[in-house]
Amino acid sequence: MSSRRSRSRRSSNSSRITEEQIVELVSKLQDLLPEARSRNSERVSASRVLQDTCNYIRDLQQEVDDLSERLADLLATTDMTSAQAAIIRSLLM
């Protein structure tokens, strides 16, 4: 029984993420955030980076929704045989 537990601990330890890996991942996330690029070398907490990342993803999703709605409106008012419709179709493909 004891050997099974120690094996289990070893395998779970090897699959754990290290603090160094977390710091590296948070740094990579921070590099992806537009507002973080302007802060450059300013030290920001991991929780702040995660919060900013979530907010940024929400903003991007809202932008996708808005653009999808605008595209649907445009397609609804466009003669699908026109040159404009052909351009729109080519951009979507």
Detail the topology: elements first, then pairings.
Elements: H1 2-15, H2 19-32, H3 34-39, H4 46-77, H5 83-92
Helix pairs in contact: 2-4
Task: Tag the structure with descriptive keywords.
93 residues; mainly alpha; 5 helices; elongated; HLH_DNA-bd_sf; transcription; protein dimerization activity
Would you kindly provide a written description of the structure presented here, covering whatever features stand out?
The protein is built from five helices and no strands. The radius of gyration is 24 Å and the shape is elongated. Helix 2 packs parallel to helix 4 (46-77). With 93 residues, the protein is mainly alpha-helical. The N and C termini lie far apart (59 Å).
Q: Can you give me a brief rundown of this structure?
A:
The chain is mainly α and 93 residues long. The chain is built from five helices and no strands.
Average per-residue pLDDT, rounded, comes to 82
Overall body shape:
elongated
Cα separation of the termini: 59 Å
Number of helices: 5
Q: Mind telling me the C-alpha Rg?
A: 24 Å
Percent of residues in helices: over 70%
